[in-house]
Design goal:
By secondary structure, this protein is an alpha/beta fold. Helix content is 44%, strand content 10%. Strand 1, helix 4 and strand 2 form a beta-alpha-beta unit. The two termini are 39 Å apart. The model has no long low-confidence stretch (mean pLDDT 96).
């Protein structure tokens, strides 16, 4: 049994029961980390990482001596995107700003996994303030390729086997994209389903907290810890009904992307799924512009005081976003947020009309 390749539910069960010694697991993980991390650069560097993890493992054993009383994530190492505040760690958010101005109380989501017995493996690399200025993380399947942003380090860490779960956030595509690029499971729940408290925002009305695992069963275990009132198997159906968003949205994809998309659709149809092609989002260019307006306007408001004092320390991509957002009035922002709400209602109505479960 190689503990580094076990599915998360199997690993967690073995650590809880004592079938797998947490100290033996950390020994194996340290040796692997030393070999793999220099090529992937998924984590923010930390001196004495594994000495700290062993101390925290000792504390876990002291707190939970009886295997029957151990929590669901007992001893599971978790990576945390470096816009989440974590007690005992510095938050730098992939930026050059003075660290002391960025700190805050521990993220509610991080506290939740700690209470479930998880060990904090460390901070994972993020693009600057979870926007587009890249960090050093590489795609573990090909170091010459990007792992995708902005949750680059988290997706790369899980894909490389450096930790079985890592936190990410999504404002535009920052969970879906790196999950796809790195070949792992990415989970972006509904808005605010996982607490955003004490996570540095990019756009507070669009940011979502989620994460990465190597398998769906692992994400189900993590979600049970993180999502309030989590229920397994809420939808009673053999197969969901799938919708294809026909029109300008789909037409934005590249020829290569569309070819792969239609191959996937064909596989699903052959597997017995019901698929409907439904015209939606005829005004996709306006939707796209509105979304970007909200991101820019809210980012400018988040960074108002920091940017006024440390403008020269921002990457030009982040600075451009903030400058654009400074030109947007409160009234324009309110109109855009109202337009987004109307879009959500329209798409929900279309799904109801055509009895769609998923797009």
């Amino acid at each position: 049994m190689n503990p580094l390749t076990l599915p998360l539910p199997t690993l967690a069960a073995a650590l809880r029961s004592g079938e797998l010694s947490l100290f033996d697991y950390l020994d194996d993980l340290e040796a692997y980390f030393a070999r793999r991390e220099p090529d992937v650069l998924a984590f923010v560097p930390e001196d004495g990482r594994f000495a700290r993890l062993r101390r925290e493992a000792e504390e876990l054993y002291a707190k939970y001596p009886d295997p029957d009383g151990r929590p669901p994530l007992f001893g599971v190492p978790v990576g945390v995107k470096d816009i989440f505040h974590v007690d005992g760690f510095v938050t730098q958010a992939g930026s050059r700003l003075p660290a002391e101005i960025l700190q805050g109380g521990e993220a509610v989501s991080v506290t939740a996994v700690r209470r479930a017995g998880a060990l904090i493996m460390g901070k994972t690399v993020t693009t600057e303030f979870a926007y587009f200025a890249p960090g050093p993380a590489r795609n573990p399947h090909n170091p010459a390729h990007t792992p995708g942003g902005s949750s680059s380090g988290s997706a790369a860490a899980v894909a490389a086997g450096l930790c079985p779960f890592a936190f990410g956030t999504q404002t535009i595509g920052s969970i879906n994209r790196p999950a796809a690029f790195c070949g792992v499971v990415g989970y972006k729940p509904s808005y605010d389903r996982i607490s955003r408290e004490n996570v540095i925002p990019l756009s507070w009305s669009l940011d979502h907290i989620g994460g990465f695992t190597r398998d769906v069963g692992g994400m189900e275990l993590a979600a049970g810890v993180l999502v309030e009132d989590w229920e397994i198997g809420g939808l009673e159906m053999e197969r969901p009904s799938l919708g294809i968003p026909e029109g300008p949205y789909l037409e934005k994809a590249s020829a290569e992307g569309l070819a792969h998309f239609w191959q996937t659709v064909e596989k699903l149809a052959k597997a017995g799924y019901t698929i409907h092609s439904v015209p939606v989002m005829a005004d996709f260019d306006e939707i796209y512009a509105r979304h970007n307006l909200i991101v820019a306007a809210e980012a400018a408001r988040v960074h108002k005081e920091w940017y006024a004092q440390y403008k020269e320390l921002y990457h030009w991509k982040t600075a451009e976003l903030i400058e654009r957002g400074r030109q947007i009035s409160d009234e324009q922002l309110a109109d855009a947020v109202a337009g987004r709400k109307k879009l959500r209602e329209t798409l929900t109505a279309v799904m109801d009309t055509h009895r769609l479960n998923l797009w």
